[in-house]
Amino acid sequence: MKKLINKLYRNRVLEPEEFKELIGNRSPELSEYLFEKARELGIQNYGDDVYIRGLIEFTNYCKNDCYYCGIRKSNSKAERYRLTKEQILQCCEVGYKLGFRTYVLQGGEDGYYTDERMIDIIQSIKQNHPDCAITLSLGEKSCETYKAFFDAGADRYLLRHETANEEHYGRLHPSQMSLQNRKQCLYHLKEIGYQVGCGFMVGSPYQTTDCLVEDLLFIKELNPHMVGIGPFIPHHDTPFADEEAGPLELTLFLLGIIRLMLPSVLLPATTALGTINPRGRELGILAGANVVMPNLSPTDVRSKYLLYDNKICTGDEAAECRYCMQKRMESIGYHVAVSRGDHKAMDKSI
Ligand code: SAM
Ligand code: FES
Questions:
Q1: Would 349 be classed as within a structural domain?
Q2: Predicted ipTM of the assembly
Q3: Which residue has the least CA distance to atom 4 on ligand 1?
Q4: Domain assignment of residue 198, given as a range
Q5: Is 78 in the pocket of ligand 2 (CB under 6 A)?
């Protein structure tokens, strides 16, 4: 199996059957071999820097009904909230003082935030902090809307494809949603000039190794700047309440594979990874990730943005999360960078 890892390291891709064989035959020893190579490539590209992104979860209203998601429309028990522009700007102020130079605005697909309102928010953040990057994670929009947000100053867009397999996509989402549209959005975003992130949940219900292979091949084809992967974790008020969470070791293994496929990709060790294991984010970095996303949302709304059960950091102040992360990264020999942390190919300061 080490041969396959060496081949992946050299060629940046494998044949579908080879990916399947590699994933199917993973072992602790093989993982360690993969992670060493992944760390080597991460360090070659970004040194021992870990980039931090300040996550602002600004609305938990959503018109969609994804079966896995705790803030889906049909969850009548979710206590809904929206942040005002002033509250969002206040989160950015706090974040800036803590050394954040990227803000991630994430939310459900909420019609309250019209293009006009979003453009005003984006422009205001940029006016206050011209040295910061804005990442949006607002779901599927028209190409015109994406372009308008980009022209207003948004730099990056996260839109996980969730699964690259049509049938699997259909088992995770109601029929109104389509994988084809999601993929189309990702191509539009890239064309417009965003730094783009796709991604998927590891261990989501009905996921097979073949699905994972399709995910990897789609990622290779899209060639994104960022890839967000984290374990699926059940939420008690969703149709998947009784499903099992995705495994830690498989998530780490896939992080390692993705680093080998795309050596300069921005790869977060996600909050979900930190939720299924107390050292999940550190292990993620040691498997090849190079980004973490501490929470900047106001403490009184944190526990309402509950995508899955037992989400960590819901009671902590932004400053606590920031310094906790610094200690965690230093404990494994990495350091938190005060920087926009652009993808290498898009970094105008180099
Ligand atoms: N509405 C936007 C969108 O669709 O991209 C952004 C918000 S959505 C909640 C962000 C991501 O959370 C999704 O892409 C999904 O992969 C992840 N997510 C949702 N429910 C989850 C769960 N139960 N476990 C792990 N991740 C989950
Ligand atoms: Fe819309 Fe989860 S169903 S954010």
A1: no
A2: 0.97
A3: 139
A4: 2-340
A5: no
